[in-house]
Known about the structure:
This protein is of the alpha+beta class.
Amino acid sequence: MTKYLAAALLTTALFTCTASAQTATNKTTDSAVSAHKEGEWRASKLVGVDVYNEANEKIGDINEIILDKSGKAANVILGVGGFLGMGEHYVAVAYDKLKWVNEPVRTSTTAPATDKPTVGVNNAGAATGEVNRSNRPVRAANENWYPDHVVYNATKDQLKAMPQFKY
């Protein structure tokens, strides 16, 4: 009788462990994501993306992304002006007001045939520090971890006139 009781307890214990292991595995696989999906971007790669206006003039870059409590992107903080990170004016722009573009910026002038980015030059012949990325290759669809640039319908002066965003 003791043998039967021990066998029954052992069998019950084995079924209980198996059932709980399957339940735990199913819970983690239901909520886990295993790969990057089309149309998703890494937030860490969005910081630093250049922002242009409708006239293809660089007006700033992305400094930060502000999320609401649900995790949805609410605002994007743009850095306007400044030099080497000093004196930049930060403004908050609604995320849905930005147009995200995967193709390189189109310019009216042709870029030199080189793999290296070229530096812009102003009317006086001095380097502006802005990099011309129009000659960089287009990424394959499976490499789109972030967009090439952003378009926002404003000028640099209009952005500088907006209230400064305070962290």
